[in-house]
Structures are given as structure tokens and as C-alpha cells.
Specification:
Blueprint lengths: L5 E5 L2 H11 L7 E5 L5 E3 L2 E3 L1 H10 L17 H8 L10 H15 L4 H11 L6 E3 L6 E6 L3 E4 H7 L6 E7 L8 H8 L3 E4 L4 H10 L3 H7 L4 E4 L2 E2 L2 E2 L4 H7 L6 H8 L5 E5 L11 E5 L6 H16 L1
Parallel strand pairs: 1-2, 1-9, 2-5, 9-10, 10-13, 13-14
Antiparallel strand pairs: 3-4, 6-7, 6-8, 11-12
Helix pairs in contact: 1-2, 1-12, 4-5
Bound molecules: ligand FO1.
The site of ligand FO1 has 19 residues, from α2 and α6.
Length: about 300
């Protein structure tokens, strides 16, 4: 089977690495990246979309490779100036990064949809692959925590360094959201739908929860393959393992595969893990830990090859 059109769903750093690998193999007309926007928030009057930014900066070759987010070698003069005013600037906005949020906010205030704004920003950075927010509507991932009650995502993730104990997750305003025309068109023509190794509960669940999204994906009789972000009972990066334990899941790739249920027809777990078995699904294992840039391309190639077979 010759795969033409691939759609990959991603959140933050882990999933973006796979999207970057795919983007180095597939031409722009054959790959669309659909991105979680549940992490988006207003900060000092600016609209910040961290996962869209991470995808943009990674595909544009601008990303800070140590953090996996933000712009490489960015300065922090604005944060220092905020401190001079007695502020506690807990969210690390770099000076160059700020330009993204200024322009995005201006375009949103002028009435453009987030999909249009993202298309404008990506194209100005020379990115040719379509990068689409999961929806144009504002949706907020909210975490109910033992220590602080309900927190907005970035407060939980960055301000409190994902240390609070999570009791439950709620997606504020999800009922008013809908799949954008661009995302719908991409999914309708997809020959395969991939779910990157992003956090299933924090990054992928918001995408799947957009009204109409899961039904649209389920209606596509094409390979639908997720990659596990859990390797040997640990998260490759971030709070996935801690969160799974707090939500009473077994911390394993198997539990991730089971969580995705009918959404997926296939599952890729890491070759360091023991063999797993998911009913009625194709499973395979590869080296999924992407340390070097080349690892992204190698994994992307292996996954596409496996699906084609
Ligand atoms: N993550 C952090 O851990 N600390 C930060 O100060 C931080 C700032 C930041 C600024 C812009 C941006 O686009 C992303 C930023 N991130 C930061 C990453 C981001 O908050 C998370 O990685 C995602 O929301 C989780 O997917």
C-alpha cells in the first residue's frame, strides 16, 4: 500500500519530535500536523500557544534543543524587566519568542481564526507543512489537584513544575469547540492517522475531545497508529508516568494502548519493553527514544514502512 496523506496528532515535545522526523521524509502536501491547544493561555494580555509554538520552532529549525521548547539562544531581558517591577515571571518567555505571541495576539484581535494565524506565522517562518490547531475555539485543560484545587494547565505544569497531585482533568469550553474546516479536510483525505508519543491524557485527550473529532477519526477506515510515550514504566519526558499513577492507571505502554481503545488500529511501543498484546490491534516495537535528530527520521521511516506493509 502506498501511503500518501499522513496526519499526525501531537502535543508537546515528544510528539513533536516524531512530527519533525515525518516532515523530513514527507513533502508538505503529504503531511499535516494537528496540534493540542488545551495548554494555551493568556499571559500579560498575550495569547500563548505552547504546543503550536513548539511545533513551529521545531519545524523551522529554531527550537532550543536542550529544553525542547522556546527559541535557541533566546535572551530573557523582558523577564528581567518584569522582575524589576516586582513581578514573579514564572513563565519563561524569551525575547524572540515574545514576537510570536505579539503577532498572534494582534492577528486574533483583528478577527482571524487561530488556524489562519498559525498558517500565517508558519509560512513566514518558511514552514511548508500544514500545522493546524485542533480547533479554533479556546479550550482550557484544567487540573483538579489535591494541593491547590483546580489549576490552569500552565500553572500546574510550569509554575508548580507538575508536582501537584492530580485528581481529575477537565476541558473548559470544550462543548463550544468544533473541528476546524482545515483539520476536517486533512483527516478526511488521510491514508493514515498517527498519534505521536505525547502525553495521552494531557496532550492527545484534548484533541480527541473536540466535538466531532473522535467520530471523524473513527469513521476513517485507514491505519490509525499511536506511539507510546511510556517506556519501561517511565515517561520519556514530563509528567505522563506520574499522572498515570495518580489517575490509577498501571504505568505501562500496555495501559496507554488500552486507553486509546478503538481510536487506534495499531500501536507502537518501545523495544526495551516486554511484548504486549492488544485485542484486535496490530502491535510492533521499535526504538522509540529520539535522542539525536537522525533518530526522529529513523523512527518515522520505520513506522511508515510498518503501516505500508
Ligand atoms: N515549559 C517550562 O517547563 N517552563 C517554561 O518556562 C516554559 C515557557 C514556555 C514559553 C513558551 C512556550 O511556547 C513554551 C514554554 N514552555 C515552558 C513549554 C510548555 O509550557 C510545555 O512544554 C507544554 O505546554 C507542554 O506540552
Amino acid at each position: 500500500m502506498a501511503l500518501k496523506n499522513i496526519v499526525v496528532l501531537v502535543g508537546g515535545v515528544g510528539g513533536v519530535k516524531l512530527a519533525h522526523g515525518l516532515a523530513q521524509i514527507l513533502p508538505p502536501e503529504n503531511l499535516t500536523v494537528i496540534v493540542n491547544t488545551g495548554d494555551d493561555f493568556w499571559h500579560y494580555g498575550l495569547r500563548v500557544c505552547p504546543d503550536l509554538d513548539t511545533v513551529m520552532y521545531t519545524l523551522a529549525g529554531l527550537v532550543d534543543k536542550t529544553n525542547g521548547w522556546g527559541i535557541a539562544d533566546d535572551s530573557r531581558a523582558m523577564l528581567a524587566a518584569l522582575r524589576r517591577y516586582g513581578e514573579d515571571p514564572w513563565f519563561g518567555l524569551g525575547d524572540q519568542d515574545l514576537a510570536t505571541h505579539l503577532l498572534r495576539t494582534q492577528m486574533l484581535h483583528a478577527g482571524q481564526r487561530l488556524s489562519e494565524v498559525t498558517a500565517a506565522l508558519t509560512s513566514r517562518l518558511g514552514i511548508l507543512h500544514p500545522v493546524l490547531p485542533m480547533t479554533d475555539a479556546p479550550v482550557r485543560t484544567m487540573l483538579d489537584t489535591v494541593e491547590y484545587g483546580e489549576l490552569e494547565f500552565q500553572t500546574y505544569f510550569v509554575r508548580y513544575r507538575w508536582q501537584p497531585t492530580v485528581k481529575s482533568i477537565r476541558l473548559d469550553c470544550i462543548e463550544q469547540a468544533s473541528v476546524s474546516p482545515e483539520a476536517r479536510a486533512a483527516l478526511e483525505r488521510a491514508d493514515a492517522i498517527l498519534i505521536g508519543p505525547s502525553n495521552p491524557w494531557l496532550s492527545i485527550a484534548p484533541i480527541l475531545a473536540v466535538p466531532g473529532m473522535s467520530q471523524l477519526i473513527l469513521s476513517r477506515n485507514v491505519p490509525r497508529v499511536a506511539v507510546s510515550p511510556i517506556v519501561q514504566g517511565q515517561a520519556v519526558k514530563g509528567p505522563a508516568a506520574k499522572l498515570m499513577a495518580e489517575l490509577n492507571y498501571d504505568v505501562s505502554a500496555q495501559a496507554v494502548g488500552e486507553y486509546y481503545g478503538d481510536i487506534i488500529t495499531g500501536f507502537v511501543y518501545d523495544e526495551r519493553d516486554t511484548a504486549l498484546n492488544l485485542n484486535h490491534k496490530q502491535v510492533t516495537s521499535f526504538d522509540t527514544i529520539m535522542i539525536r535528530d537522525e533518530d526522529r527520521v529513523v523512527l518515522a521511516r520505520k513506522i511508515l514502512h510498518w503501516i505500508e506493509e
